[in-house]
Amino acid sequence: MSQIRVGSDALAVLELLAGEAPVEQVEALVTRALEEGVAEAERDVLTRARGLALRIHAQSGRRQQREMGLSALVDTARELAASQELDAVLKVVTRRARLLLGLDMAFISFPAEEQGFVHVRSSDGHTSTSTVGLRLLADAGPVGEALVNSAPFWTPDYPADKRFRHHPAFDEVVEAEALRALVAVPLSLGARPVGALYVADRNVRHFSADEISLMSSLGDLAGAAIESARLLDAATAAVAALEGPALRRERELSETQSLFTGLVLNGGGPQPLVAELARRLDGAVRVHALDGTLLTTAGEPPDTGGTARPPATSEARAAGAPVALADGSWAAPIVAGEEHLGTLLTFPGQRFTEFDERLLGLGARFTAIALLLEAGRSAGVHGRIRHSLLDELLGLAGRPPHLLEARARRCGIDLDEPHLVVIARPERSFGSELGSWAASYTQRMNGLMSLRKDCAVLLLAGNDAGAAARAVHDELSQVLDQRVTVAAAGPATGARSVTGTHQEAQRCVDAMTAVGAVGRAASPRELGGLGVLLSGSHDVGAFIDATIGPVADYDRQRLTELVPTLEAYFDTGASPTYAAERLHVHPNTVTRRLERIGELLGSGWQQPERAFEVQLALRLSRIRHVLRGGGPPSAGAVLGSPDVWRPPRRRPRDVTKPGTPALASRPRR
Fold first, then answer.
1. Tens digits of per-residue pLDDT, 173-187?
2. Measured at the alpha carbon of residue 620, what is the angle toward residues 614 and 624, in degrees to the nearest 5?
3. In what order do the strands lie in the sheet with 419-426?
4. Cα separations in angstroms, 276 against 119, 328, 339, 365, 508
5. pTM higher than 0.70 for the full model?
6. What distances in angstroms separate CA 37 from CA 16, 41, 464, 494, one per listed residue?
7. Does residue 553 surpass a pLDDT of 80?
8. What is the spatial distance between Cα 170 and Cα 156, in angstroms, rounded to a whole number?
9. Which domains, and CATH codes, for the chain?
10. Interatomic CA distance for residues 359 and 353, integer angstroms
C-alpha cells in the first residue's frame, strides 16, 4: 500500500478552498486519503483539516448571503427614496420584504384609532380578501411582540407554536392563507414603533439570526420612509388649504392632464378617458366620429338618436373650441393638427363653469390623441397586414393564391365567399381624411382597403355591387363634403378573381368620369350595354338573356315569331308596315306582335336607351352564333340553341312542343 503524504493532502484541501470548490469535493478528497491508509497522527491532521475546511466554507457562505442581503437593502432604500406617497412606500416595503427572504406573503399593520387595536393597511402575495383591513388586538401574539414590545418575533410553524396567546382573527388569516413560518418586526422611527411588518411562508422554515437581523434593518428603514411619506402628505394638505381657488384649479388642471396622459398611454383607447372626464364634469359625455357615428359614451346622456346633431359638429368645428348648444349641452371639436376627427359632446349635470369649459377642451385634445393611437394600433401590424394583403391581391406582389387566401382567413376574411371591389374617386383633393375613413369603413365591414393614386379601393363581402357602390357613395360624400364617383364590380370568389374584378371596377369608374357621371354610383351591370363592354367577364349570354330572354322564351314555348319580328322592326327603321312586308304578314299581325313584346319587355322598351340595348342584344346573339360555326339565322334560333347559357328557370305550366326541354315563363316587367 502506498504511503500518503499528509503535507500534500493538506495542501490539496487548501487549493480546493481557494478555488471555492463545493464541500463535496473536500469530503471526497479526505475520504479517499483516509481509505488509502495513513498513520494515526496523519489521520488526525486530515480529519481536523476537513473540519476547518467545512467551517471556512460555511462562514464564506454566510458572508456572501449577508452581502447579498445588504445589497438588496441598499436597493430597497433607493426605491423608497423615489416613492413619496404613503401607499407607494407600503407597496415597496411589502414587495421587497418578500423578495429579501424569498417568502410567500408580507403585510403591514398600523395602530388603529381605537386604543388597543391595530389594522392591516397593505399586503403583498395574499390569496384571500381577509387580510387588508383586518382589525387585531395590539397585544395578541406576533402583533404584541413586534408593536408593543418593539422586538422582532419569529416562529418556524405558527399554527403549532403554543408559546404565545393566539388571536382568533389573526389565526383565521393564517388558516385562509395556509401560512406556517412567520417573522414580525417593528417599523421603528428611533425608539418608537409606528407599525409592524410581517413576512410569512407557506412551509415550515427555521430562520437564521442573519435573516432576523436583515428583516429588522428593513423595518427601521421602512419606518423612516413611512414617517416621511406621512409628513409629506400632511404638508401637501396644509399647502392645499392655504392655496386660493385659482391656484387650486390650475393644480387640478395640471393633475388632470397628467392623469389623462397616463390613461392615453396605457392603451385603453378613448373609453377610460371619457369615463374620467364624465366623472369630473359630473355629467354624461359622448364621442362621435366625423360622420356622426357614436364611438363611445360615459354616463347617461339623453337620447339623441345615436348620431351627433349636425349643428353640434358644425358649430364646434367652426369655433375651434368648446361651444354651448341651445339645449344646455356643450360640444368640443376633436382635432389633430388640421384634421378633424369628430366631436366631443357633454351633458353637464350642473352649471357649466369656465373651469369645466377648459376641462372639456383638455378632454377633447386628449381624445384626439387616444383616437389617433387607437387608429394607429388597429392600422398597425394588423392593419398593415390587411392592407398589404389587398395590394398583393391586386397584383402588386405576386404570391401563390392559396397563401393569400390563408392570410385572408387569418384576418377573418373568407375569399371563397362572394366579394366586391369598390373604387371611390373624390372630385377634389382629399388629404388624409379619405384614408382615415377607408380604414374605419373596412374595419366596420370586415373588409380590406388600399389607397391608390387618386382613389380608395375597398374589398367588401357581398353580392350586390350596385348596393355596395351606393352605400359607399352616400357615406363618403357626406364625410368629405364633395362629389365622389363610386364604381363597384363583382361578385368575385377566390384570390385569382380579385385582380380582374378590380380592373372591371376601374374601367367602370373611368367610363363614368368620361361620360360625365361624376358624383354618381353604379356597377357595370347597371350600365346596360355599356356594362357589357366594361365587364371583365364579358358575360354576353347573361346580358342577352336579361334583355330579350322573355321574348325568346315565349317563342320557344308557343312556337311564335316575336324575335324575328323584333329584328325586322329595327332593321326597317322601327316601321311596322315595312316590317310586315319583310316578314310577308299583315301589318296588323306585326302590331299585335309588338304589343305582346311590350307586355314581355315592359312599356319602355322602345325608348332610345332600352331600344339600343335590345338591338345590341339581338346583334350579339347573331354574332355569337356565327362565331360558333353556324349560319346567319335569326336571333330567335340563336337564343333557342342549347349552346347559349342562361340561368335556370322554373318549369312552365304547359309545354306545347313534345320533347322540348321545359322552360319557365318570365314574369312581365
1. 888 888 999 998 888
2. 150
3. 448-452, 455-461, 419-426, 484-492, 521-522
4. 31, 21, 25, 14, 50
5. no
6. 21, 12, 100, 87
7. yes
8. 16
9. 6-63 (no CATH), 83-237 (3.30.450.40), 251-378 (3.30.450.40), 381-527 (3.30.70), 540-640 (1.10.10.2840)
10. 10
